[in-house]
Design a protein that fits this description.
With 294 residues, the chain is α/β, with parallel strands linked by helices. Among the domains are: 90 residues, Arc Repressor Mutant, subunit A (Orthogonal Bundle), CATH 1.10.10; 103 residues, 3-Layer(aba) Sandwich (D-Maltodextrin-Binding Protein, domain 2), CATH 3.40.190. Helix content is 42%, strand content 20%. Strands 3, 4, 5, 6, 9, 10 and 11 form a seven-stranded mixed β-sheet that branches. Strand 7, helix 9 and strand 8 form a beta-alpha-beta unit. Belongs to the LysR transcriptional regulatory family. Pfam families: HTH_1, LysR_substrate. Keywords: DNA-binding, Transcription, Transcription regulation.
């Protein structure tokens, strides 16, 4: 199936800018031309590609096609540079998946001196990155998968260390006789979202059992931390983000000398190995400085 490059680029622009109008302005064509290109591309593929919402979002098929378009455009630019052709100084766009705890802590030290790249960072749990790499929606990902996704290189980064914490008041109320499976079954958990299972993994690790407590979902790290300090529930907090509140006494450990360790890895597409070489090196060096090594 041969697809029109301009229609693919239009799809990518719509999904990146979030609207047909914004895409038209950026591409310097009419909005009706954008609509027509998307319509013809959908007819060619035989599937809906764009959910016409505010902002516009891609269907699964649309996201895969847009990722393909972005990758082809970037690789053509890289090839042109390698062949000595003038392609301007525009940075190469790259889609990267990072877990929120890394992004809020050590990964931020990786941002410097990569002006040749134009990053689009997606926040995803590291257990849910395989399909993103396989489909080409991202070209690099922080993941828990040690086995490389087909076509990818893998580099060990270290362990993310999580601590079971809560406010002193919450502990006094819900665990007056200590932490136990029966007490955990009724004490509310504060989790990031439905993909956040660190709390259940810690319970299984410590007690060899599974309990289903009530839970709050707060998909914001600053707000989640405030909720823990305020006594809304207990949760598994990344050690670097919990350190200050533990020192101040705003949070306490549910159990002393107890943590949950999640080994993480950096996987990146082999096609992008040379382009991302410096960035990959920077990530690995930064991780070694900040994360315990297994």
């Amino acid at each position: 199936m041969k697809l029109d490059p301009e229609r693919l680029r239009t799809l990518s622009t719509v999904l990146r800018t979030g609207s047909f109008e914004a895409a038209a302005n950026e591409m310097r064509i009419t909005q009706s031309a954008v609509s027509q290109r998307i319509k013809l591309l959908e007819e060619k593929v035989g599937a809906r590609l764009v959910k016409r919402e505010s902002p516009c979002v891609g269907t699964d098929a649309g996201l895969q096609l847009a990722a393909h378009a972005d990758q082809v455009e970037a690789l053509e630019k890289i090839l042109a540079r390698n062949l000595g052709h003038e392609v301007g100084d525009e940075p190469v766009p790259v889609n990267i998946s990072v877990n929120v705890d890394s992004m809020c802590s050590w990964f931020g030290d990786c941002f410097g001196a990569h002006h040749d790249l134009l990053f689009n960072f997606q926040l995803n749990h590291p257990a849910y990155t395989d399909s993103l790499l396989e489909s080409g929606q991202v070209v690099g990902a922080v993941t828990i998968q040690k086995k490389p996704v087909p076509g990818c290189d893998v580099y060990p980064l270290g362990d993310m260390v999580y601590l079971p914490v809560a406010s002193p008041k919450f502990v006094k109320k819900h665990f007056p006789e200590g932490v136990s499976p029966s007490a955990l079954a009724t004490a509310p958990v504060v989790r990031f979202n439905s993909k956040d299972h660190n709390w259940s993994e810690w319970i299984r690790q410590e007690f060899g059992s599974t309990v289903t407590p009530p839970y709050h979902s707060i998909a914001s790290k600053p707000a989640l931390n405030k909720a823990l300090v305020a006594g809304l529930g207990w949760g598994m907090e990344y050690i670097a983000l919990a350190r200050d509140d533990l020192k101040k006494g705003n949070l306490v450990l549910l159990r002393q000398d107890s943590d949950f360790r999640m080994p993480i890895y950096w996987q990146t597409s082999r096609i992008w190995r040379e382009t991302l070489a410096d960035f990959t090196r920077h990530i690995c060096q930064t991780a070694r400085k900040n994360l315990p090594q297994s």
